[in-house]
Amino acid sequence: MTDEARAFVPGHLTGFFSAHPNANSSAAGSRGAGVALSHGVDVRVRHGSHTDADSSLVALNGDAVPIGPVGGVRDALDAPDAAVTVETPLPLGAGFGVSGAVALGAAYGINAAYDRRRSANDLVSIAHGAEVEAGTGLGDVVAQARGGLPIRLDPGDPDHGRLDGIPAAPRVEYVTFGSVSTEAVLSGDTTRLTAAGERALADLRREPTAPRLVALSRRFARQAGLLTDRVADAVEAVRDAGGDAAMAMLGDTVFAFGTDLSDAGYDPEVCVVHPAGGTLHAPKQGTSTPQSVE
Fold it and tell me: Which of 88, 125, 222, 272 could form a disulfide with 157 if both were Cys (CB 3.0 to 4.6 A apart)?
């Protein structure tokens, strides 16, 4: 057991998805594809200093903020007093998978700080189930655990879902205009978006390239009826300049690869594809607990 543990989890832009609800939160989830970002969340877990009655509260960039899945993670790992501190350049509710990243980082951190001795897949399953039950996402956690340009072939946690990926690591540009309520979209009729997501996934599997991911994501947003006016204007401007761009699900955010947003006159945030999934930072020297083998 240690007093403190730290983790990094990449942000995740979903380009397209299909929703697959299930009474079993481990089997529920989404199919689709997206981008793991080098811009992500740094999570610090301290042992025994969370006293607030709201188990979902974390310190996010210095402010007390409820992140729904964190309560489920604390409960699943029997750590109600675990203090979770998060630093991230990414905004909440704008399509970057922040809630899923915080949930996964908290699971990694609590496991280390409280010596829960759970496997990586167990922790991903806990964070995924907590996010599904909180209504804040369906597929970010498993994608963030993989990294790269993940393709989610099946819904659900690691025991239920297969993953593939696009073997590429392009430069990523994005511009955020605001937020979209994930809970509102996922709790409504998802028939139209699921049909569009299934078509996009089938097409991407035939041609799994980064440019194809953007093109299919652009088509998905229009066919699913999710495209916002500001993202639509940005996509049009990028295409007029000879590039391509798409909307991040679910947020009022446009993303592109290479310099396509810059070439269209925007001043985007810039990062790269994060090739690995979430990781636990190495503990400081002298904080590990020796283990005996009998």
Answer: 125
b/e 6-37 (16+ beta carbons within 10 angstroms → b): bbbbbbbbbbbbbbbbeeebbbbbbbbbbbbb
C-alpha 234/C-alpha 244 separation (Å) is 10
Q: Tell whether the torsion through CA atoms of 36, 181, 152 and 58 is positive or negative.
A: positive
Query: What domains can you pick out in the chain, each with its CATH number?
Result: 4-165 (3.30.230.10), 168-272 (3.30.70.890)
Q: Among 186, 81, 62, 86, which Cα is nearest to 134's? A: 186
Q: What share of the chain is helix, strand, coil (3-state, %, to 5)?
A: 35, 30, 40
Dihedral angle sign, alpha carbons of residues 41, 47, 50, 54: positive
- Rounded Cα–Cα distance for residues 181 and 258 (Å): 28
Per the structure block, which two tokens stand in for 224?
A: 């699913």
- What dihedral do alpha carbons 211, 214, 217, 218 form, nearest 10°? -110
HSE, CB side, 13 Å, CA atoms: give it for residue 180: 23
Q: Which helix (H) or strand (E) holds 57?
A: strand 57-60
Q: Which of 243, 290, 291 is nearest to 268 (CA)?
A: 243
**Buried b or exposed e, range 245-255, using 16+ CB within 10 angstroms:** bbbbbbbbbbb
279-280/163-166 β-pairing: unpaired
Burial class (CB in 10 A: 0-12, 13-18, 19+), 208: middle
DSSP helix/strand/coil, 113:
helix
Question: pLDDT by residue (tens digit) across 49-77?
Answer: 788 878 899 999 999 999 999 999 999 99
Find residue 31's DSSP bridge partners: 18
Claim: this prediction has a pTM higher than 0.85 = yes
> Residue by residue, what is the 3-state secondary structure of 156-212?
CCCCCCCEEEECCCCEEEEEEEEECCHHHHHCCCCHHHHHHHHHHHHHHHHCCCHHH
